[in-house]
Amino acid sequence: MKILYISISGNTRAFVQHLKTYSDEQHQQNNENPLITSKEISENSPFEKEDDSFFAFVPTYLEGGNGVDSGDTEILTDVLRDYLDYEDNYKKCLGVVGSGNKNFNYQYCLTAKQYSEAFGFPFLADYELRGTSADCERIYHILKEHESN
């Protein structure tokens, strides 16, 4: 199982690391696949054509508007959008997981929802900030289910 992600404040990176640890534990305890590999996309990442399927993880950083009736502008994470668009990488994406801060109401996980709509892959799950152990377990099982479909 492969995850592509972008992490601005370190929250997404920390969550993906916790998810990988949980996956490793499940593999050791139950000889259960899949093990997780991850790739962080940043401003310095070389763009490559993805040959294998993957999941995308994206936090929400917006400016301008409220995301409902006065628009919004994605900031800081748009390099992941560009990477997904590059060589049609989005066609290999099995779904997106979003994160954010619930204090932002409607804008919570809005970037992931917009990716889902723009690229046509499903919005699978969400978690707040760095997530919890329960979030890791829940999202791991969601990814497992969608990888096997």
Automatic annotation (TrEMBL):
InterPro entries: Flavoprotein-like_sf, RNR_NrdI
GO molecular function: FMN binding
TM regions (residue ranges): none
Top-level taxonomy: Bacteria, Bacillati, Bacillota, Bacilli, Lactobacillales
Pfam families, alphabetized: Flavodoxin_NdrI
Protein name: NrdI protein
Source organism: Enterococcus gilvus ATCC BAA-350
Signal peptide: none
